[in-house]
Design a protein that fits this description.
The complex is a heterodimer of chains A (353) and B (103). Chain A has 16 helices and seven strands. With 353 residues, chain A is α+β, with helices and mostly antiparallel strands. In chain A, α3 crosses α5 and α14 crosses α16. Chain A is rod-shaped. The termini of chain A are far apart. The chains are: A alpha+beta (353), B alpha+beta (103).
Chain lengths: 353, 103
Amino acid sequence: MDPFFFRVEHDLVRSEAFRQLNGSSVKVYLVIGLYADFETGWAYPSIRTIAKQAGLSRQTVLNAIEDLVNQGIVATSKSAGRSTAYRILHNAPPRPSSKSQKDKPNRSKSFSEHLESVPEFLDQTPETVLNSRTPVAPTGPFFSDDEAQFWNEPGPESGPKQEQSNKNPVNDSSPSIDIPGTPFRITLDGRLLSLMSLDEVLIKQGVNEDSARYLAHRYDQDRVIKAILNVMYLDKSKKLQNAPGYLRMALEKGYELLPQMAQKIEKRRSLLTQDIGQNLMKEKKMLERERLAAEEAAINLLIGNLKREELERLIRQAVGSLPEPLVKRNPSITNPLIRARVYELATRITESN
Amino acid sequence: MSSATVTTHTDDWVRHLLFDRGFLASMKGESIKVYLTMLTACGGEPDRSVTISLRSIQDATNLSCPTVIDSLNRLEELGLVVPTMRKSGRVKTYYIPGVPPEN
């Protein structure tokens, strides 16, 4: 007796995905359900087994699995040296009535349209690196005038975690850089910021309002941002059809950033590091120039106050104390070495007086 | 149709039918979708009759009318559904046997 099997079947028939799937995909879904572990939900059938049970060819099975994953009703987990694991996602979106289906706009379409307005998602080059450090980055359709918000302060928590209000993002002056085409920013230490409340971003991605609010508050915000970034990347690459389904799974399982996405974000972070390094160098050079200018002004003031005879005496003294090759060509006060030595001698005289 | 209406003894017969007796592998094309729709319509119980229109199956499966008819014919050939009443209209009554006859 296995009540799980039929529950799987009913989950499928109730879902909107059932209408979109072809017969082969449904068969593969059923076989995965048959092999699913009752407790963990993971199934480990080989392609050959699935093909045999479903009466399909291996290629058809592979296509069907891809279809199921794209529909967001099956998750796969591949690891080197081990068979692929499959898991049926029981939160497949329910089938709307035919009437409401006609009334409601197509979610994936609206999301695609939304992304179409960001053609250079993550590939666009910021105008200048320096400008990208400014708190507000007008990139992407999610641009908001809200201040950046930090999520997940690292380190041990000093007290009970307080619920963060998405409506009132926390100000933070730490340097950060925008992630082009998204409402997010990355800080130097790798923290993710959101320029707008996460439930709004989730709603923009097709999650209904109540679920968006629930997900944004239930899960760690860092996890939510990562899931959204993954969805954006997959949707842009046209590898995802059921964004809300993927989002739910990613949040439930705590998916890390996809390697491609992580790489792009890391590039942005290194740009920020580079930018900050350059700024520090500029500041250092500027301070050095200011120091030299101040020194020059002090020398000019001191030398200017010396009497002509005294100045000539000090110049002679300076020329005599310096190696001949250094002063042979220009034994006057315009020689920086002589000038510095005269200043030194004059200072000693002033101090002794 | 909620999963709560399905009792454990009904689960076993579907699994037995589809996997142990190999009917899943025997079903071609979109027949499985039509069969699951029929099962859902009869509450997941074996040896029950269900009256359903082609339009209802089309809506549930997103298949065309000829595909649904073709799938029903295949299911009839396999003995998984048995038409019990034929009318000139589109509504038919099908009997879902718990134990189809051996081919």
